[in-house]
Amino acid sequence: MPMTALDIFKLLAKKNCGECGVPTCLAFAMMLANKQTELTKCPYVSPEVVQQLESSASPPMRTVTVGDLEIGGETELFRHEKKFFNQTAYAVVIEDDSDNESIAERAKKLDAMKYERIGIISGVDLIAIKSKGDAQRFSEVVTLVKENSGLPLVLMSDDPQVVEAGLKVVSKAKPLIYAGNANNCAALAKLARQYACPVALYSDDVDELVSLSEIAKSEGADDIVLDLNLGAKPLRDALEWLTILRRLSVKKLFRPLGYPIMLNVDNGADVETQAIRATLGTLKYASLIIFGDLDAARLYPLTTLRTNIFTDPQALIQVNPGLYDIGKPDRNSPVIVTSNFSLTYFTVASDIEASKVPARLLVVDTEGLSVMTAFAADKFTPETIAQALEEYKVAEKVDHRKLIIPGMIAMLKMKLEELTGWEVIVGVKDSSALPKYLKELASG
Ligand code: SF4
């Protein structure tokens, strides 16, 4: 059972010296119990106490780094309780028995599968290189993939010799070794320790997975990822087990399962089935998913879903307030006002782009609220718009004095004109009407 704040407090030095960053030992104990600080911040904890507190002070699920990508590190069962920290990572397989040209081409293609939505860049996160068993060939293909892609890697082989051949080429890039099983767990865990890389452990059976985790830990592998073969199980079973594993990790603090969970959906399933399984994994608790294949048509909805799940529910996605050039505006180009809610900004910006009429977009600080919500909350007012006009020196960049405001806040027109001396034009109510509106404005 995790220690309470009072249990932890009893073990502290009780100097109340504040060196840990909080004024009292009790406050420090409470933060430790809530996983909001680290034990190392108190210089007066004896090694015996460190050992005693270790399990209480360490996070319920380890954060594992693969390349420059972090997975796991989650603390909650439900997103609304706080937030989820590291989004589900997507890996796509390249098999080492293809010809070199196709491998290089596929690596480049996967690397380039990226797009931007509401300011967030999404795409394939890792390449998983799958061996057919030949160490020399594996080493060549790992080199080839590395030369053609900067994505973090998963090295897929049961054979420690093959894995080591790959590790020798890319160990500095911290690839994930996949996967330790009942036969090779100790050997792969040793390699993981030797090359300072994470290792995935695989079993169909949860009890065996627990013992593999204990073996790997005892061999010195700290960064572990667990695969209970849920990518091949019926969806209902997969959902049940994903939930059980997350609960055991974050609520029961069962240390052998306190690691990120992964799904390998590359089990001979067609791309549609893989995408369906990945949807479940993204929604419920998979930190890493390996696909046999993934095309843009499936990647886009998956990453959109992922963004929705992994954004902080308590922090609105916002862009920096300011004056943005859309196209190449000149001193006569229109100035359009909007809020700094990301979705609003990107929608309005892309509708202006679609009009082909260069313009300046004055983004007012509405604390990330959309136009109408900000208006209702008194964050989008004549005063805040006037302030933005002043702050971003709009008058110095244009020769006219005309400001287009969203049609939905037409009621601000008079007060805004009074405050600024600018002519305020009430624009369209819906951003989708902007292209036509701006074209008409420009032509006449
Ligand atoms: Fe207490 Fe240690 Fe913090 Fe000092 S540094 S207040 S002894 S917990």
Protein model, in words:
The protein is of the alpha/beta class and 444 residues long. It has three domains: 5-57, Orthogonal Bundle (3-methyladenine DNA Glycosylase II, Chain A, domain 3); 63-310, TIM Barrel (Alpha-Beta Barrel); 322-443, Rossmann fold (3-Layer(aba) Sandwich). Helix content is 41%, strand content 17%. It is built from 16 helices and 17 strands. The chain has helices spanning 5-11, 25-33, 47-57, 100-112, 135-148, 160-170, 185-195, 206-218, 235-250, 271-283, 296-310, 342-355, 371-376, 382-391, 413-420, 434-443; strands at 63-66, 69-72, 89-95, 114-117, 120-123, 126-130, 153-156, 176-180, 199-202, 224-227, 262-264, 288-291, 322-326, 335-339, 359-364, 402-405, 423-426. Strands 10-9-8-7-6-3-12-11 form an eight-stranded parallel β-sheet, covered by helices on one side. Strand 4 (114-117) and strand 5 form a beta hairpin. Helix 4 (100-112) crosses helix 5, helix 7 packs across helix 8 (206-218) and helix 10 packs parallel to helix 11 (296-310). Iron/sulfur cluster binds at residues 12-13, 15-20, 24-25, 28, 42, 44.
Shape: globular
Computed over alpha carbons, the radius of gyration is 27 Å
CATH topology of the largest domain: TIM Barrel
CATH architecture of the largest domain: Alpha-Beta Barrel
Distance between the termini: 73 Å
User: What is the percentage of strand-forming residues?
Assistant: 15-25%
The H-level CATH homologous superfamily of the largest domain, spelled out, is Dihydropteroate synthase-like
The total of beta strands comes to: 17
Count of DSSP H/I helices: 16
Unique ligands: iron/sulfur cluster
Structural class: alpha/beta
Oligomer: single chain
What's the CATH class label of the largest domain?
Alpha Beta
Tell me the helix content: 40-55%
Q: Strand order of the main beta sheet, please?
A: 10-9-8-7-6-3-12-11
- Biggest sheet overview: 8 strands, parallel
| Global mean pLDDT | 93
Which regions have little confidence, pLDDT < 50, spanning 5+ residues? none
**How many individual domains?**
3
